[in-house]
Amino acid sequence: xxxxxxxxxxxxxxxxxxxxxxxxxxxxxxxxxxxxxxxxxxxxxxxxxxxxxxxxxxxxxxxxxxxxxxxxxxxxxxxxxxxxxxxxxxxxxxxxxxxxxxxxxxxxxxxxxxxxxxxxxxxxxxxxxxxxxxxxxxxxxxxxxxxxxxxxxxxxxxxxxxxxxxxxxxxxxxxxxxxxxxxxxxxxxxxxxxxxxxxxxxxx
Length: 204
What we know:
Blueprint: H1 3-15, H2 18-25, H3 29-43, E1 48-50, E2 55-57, H4 59-86, E3 91-97, H5 99-116, E4 120-126, E5 139-140, E6 159-165, H6 167-173, H7 181-184, E7 197-203
Parallel strand pairs: 3-4, 3-5
Antiparallel strand pairs: 1-2, 6-7
Helix pairs in contact: 1-2, 1-3, 1-4, 2-3
């Protein structure tokens, strides 16, 4: 007894008679009857009760039918799995990114990634938290001087900050000497030149 024989039995019982099974299998009725007889001979018992219009499974035939149906379903599931895997990567990836950096810099990258890998669902969280990651986050992008020691981190690059002041602010408050100066209103005592002024620093 082999898989083809069990499949034949399943098709015969599902069809209800030999003629319908023959049309489904694109075989002659005589050929279907012959293979059924060979299957019953191999099993050593009668598997179906035949009438002029229908076939009904015996108790043993019904048990074999159930096994054959289960095998057919498993085969279909295996074929679907192979077909899905052949289409490319699939799954869900949770990503947490800083709000401003994520929207201004990373949005284009995420859109391109989705175009290249349509089977992957990106669950993107725009947030400015630096504490422990949520359970649903697989990858987190953070702008920090040093990553938390409990996490596996990789340096992706430096982020450069630029502090800008308008002409009106400089004329009213003076040009700051440091980035902290505007908070305490301690401008440098010198005249500003040009339409705009800025001080810069780099961070990671």
